[in-house]
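ping. complex inputs:
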Amino acid sequence: MSNNFFESLFKKSVAILLSLFCLMGIGQVFAEDTYTTYKKVKDGKITYAEGYDYSTPVPKNAKMNLSYFNDAAFIGDSRTMDLMIYSKVKKTKAAAYCDVGLNVNTVFEKKFITVKKKKVTVLEALKANNKKYSKIYIMFGINELGFDSVEGFIKSYKKLIDAVRKIKPDALIYVQSVLPVAKSKDQTSDMFTNHRAKKYNTYIKEMCTEKKVFFIDAYSAFEGANGYLPEAVASDGIHFRADVCDKWLIYLANHTLAYKEEKEKAE
Amino acid sequence: MILIKRFSAVILVITLMFTAFGCGGKDFSDESAMALVDEVLESVEFQQELTELPETLLGSSYDLIDGVDALAYSAGYPADRFAIFKADDAKKLPEISKMLENKAQELIDTYSSYDTSQVGKLENAIIETKGNYVIFIVTDDYENAKNIVGKY
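pong. complex structure:
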């Protein structure tokens, strides 16, 4: 009895496990499909799929080729500038609208980009550029950690998103969270602390939900085991070392929506 | 890395030779420019490794002037940088120098309210004209950089 019983039990267990694996596999396919339905092109216009949860960070997905960034634009401060200069994105046709010290207020005023021999602001340059961007990555916050009010920061950030969307209505807007700082910075500065960065990120996430833009949780990606940006990642505790910028780019390439559509385009 | 720097320098010279006709200082040839670029990149210390600026950032980093070719390297966030400009006409040299003086002042204004440790090197920015070239270097190692530029 016992041998047959155990043999039968073993076979049933294997069958159950195999079924579970199959179901998990199907689940995976469904999960991928849900990623692809966020955008529908109807009569030449882009609409967003109902039911997309904008409060959820963009999930990890299949890694895009470098060419994925050819029709991307990046708006940000010195951290974005490091990404544009040191990562492989510099080999693509991605546009860079970034500067040292830029923030959600000065981005409207600072004329530092030359267009037709004239210095213009980021938004003026974006408007003057006829290129059709599929995605626009925005990241601000580190220079604003010292602002008196986080509400004021968010108010300007929302204004920026509205302005960018108005200029490039067809582009998907990805907003990256404020990246963490290293312990050496956190503990010697009143302004550059992870406590403040996390607070700002909570507001940024809420803003993304309200404005229906995609939130990329880059903070979590670079948060070390001790809750800080690893010291080896940034020489001054804030700005990424040259060799780490590619890891950041890979994170972005791994966290995209429109998986199938973009993949087909890339091929 | 050295190979890449050398390659960039060779590309610079070849490009400039083809694009800037009828110019080139008597004392500072295209070969001198190539050697200078090599030596600065190899011997001058910068806060962070310099990398060649992509075209997409060249226009927001410097005011580009018609008839002037530029090769620029940046250290990202730190103010450290190295750029070399070649004019197709010597009359444009003062305009390039003025543009770089303005650039240095603009960076001083930016870093003064952001990171004052960068200001000193900007106040000592090297802007030097050699033949039809203008050289721009921002580094804490400016004495060394100045000596190297002075050799050519």
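Chain B touches chain A at residues 48-49, 51, 53-54, 56-57, 59-60, 63-64, 74, 76-77, 107, 110-111, 113-114 (CB under 8 Å).
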